[in-house]
Amino acid sequence: MKPLLALDWGTTSLRGALLAADGTVVQERALPQGILSVAAGQFPSVFQNAFGDWMQDGRLCLIAGMAGSQQGWREAPYCACPAGFGDIAARLAWVEPGRIAIVPGLSIEAGGVPDVMRGEETQVFGALALLGLDDARLVLPGTHSKWVNVGGRRITHFSTWMSGEFYALLRRHSILARTLPDAEPPHDADAFMQGVQHARQGAGLLHTAFSTRTLSLFRRLPAEALPSYLSGLVIGEEVKAQSLARGDSVVVIGAPALAACYEQALALWGVAVQPVGNQATWRGLHAIAETLNSP
Questions:
Q1: What is the pLDDT of residue 57?
Q2: From start to end of 118-231, where are the E strands?
Q3: Of 48, 78, 211, 214, which sits 20 to 30 A from 40 (CA to CA)?
Q4: Which domain holds residue 169?
């Protein structure tokens, strides 16, 4: 297989990695040029300025993420679940045939309502390849967390949880903001776990969230511990909603600090964690490229 240029083009950032034929990362770049900062018609010039020097010798470029959305470079229609490597490869949106392609996102119908992901599917496939798994339960925490089921190396089900966004809304735009410090203090593991435990026992976030205020009013928690407590409430509510049993294992794909929070929370349910970092995207794009090169 030829060397590959792998891109993760998201809403607010653009990351790229030059991969050797065996998938080894040769070089990486990160730029604050997410799709929202690119004017219509300017995607080719932004790409050329950022990575033109890497697109030599007939190199293939695969792009994951929001570049394939309606606001991106070219829309890559969603691929319906269940879906695996081959399904994704067959639905690539070619910007330049044989040279630059965008990976489609995935869609699913659950209870008569559609759900979607764009970019996370590539991370999931990368994690499977890195860990040598055919079947797995995974979580990709973030602004909109994704919980994913994989069977036979195919994504069979997933769901979206707006945990990060709800935390931000409560943190900055609710009555709770009046008792929380403006600056984000260091993570308080004890306060976080107190929040997770309260979420686990509580009636729901609409009720438990107010405890952030009352614990402050009665001086049960210092102001600098409240953001971690609120984070625990939100993440605890998310984990509580999953069908998890003691002894289960969950693959967590994300930045180390956030993955560690989920590992803490899942421990309360007796669930083990396999962490995978940001290299999952590169491994996933390499796996899709390998599918393209298969006979």
A1: 75
A2: 136-140, 145-151, 154-161
A3: 78
A4: 163-276
- Upper half-sphere CA count for residue 213 (Cβ side, 13 Å): 12
pLDDT attached to residue 84 = 93
User: What is the rounded distance in angstroms from the CA atom of residue 126 to the CA atom of residue 133?
Assistant: 10
Cβ atoms 170, 185 nearer than 8 A: no
Same domain for 200 and 120: no
- 65 with 38: CB under 8 angstroms? no
The residues, ordered by sequence, that sit 6+ positions from 171 with a Cβ below 8 Å of its Cβ are 177, 180, 227, 230
Q: Is residue 129 domain-shared with residue 176, that is, in the same domain?
A: no
Between CA 104 and CA 24 the distance in angstroms is: 24
Model pLDDT, residue 277: 86
CATH number of the structural domain spanning residue 251: 3.30.420.310
Burial, 251: exposed, middle or buried (Cβ in 10 Å; 0-12, 13-18, 19+)? Answer: buried
Tokens of 8: 């993760």
Mean pLDDT by 10 residues, the chain (295 residues): 90 95 94 95 96 88 97 96 93 95 97 96 96 97 97 98 97 96 96 98 97 97 98 98 97 95 97 93 94 69
Q: What is the pLDDT of residue 294?
A: 59
Residue 292: the pLDDT is: 84
In a domain, 171, yes or no: yes
C-alpha atoms less than 13 angstroms from C-alpha of 48 in its C-beta half-sphere: 5
Using DSSP's 3-state secondary structure scheme, residue 47 falls into helix
- Rounded CA-CA distance 133/128 in Å is 5
**How open is the CA angle 24-29-34, to the nearest 5 degrees?**
125
What distance in Å separates the CA atoms of residue 148 and residue 137, rounded to the nearest whole number?
A: 6
Distance (Å, rounded) from C-alpha 37 to C-alpha 46?
10
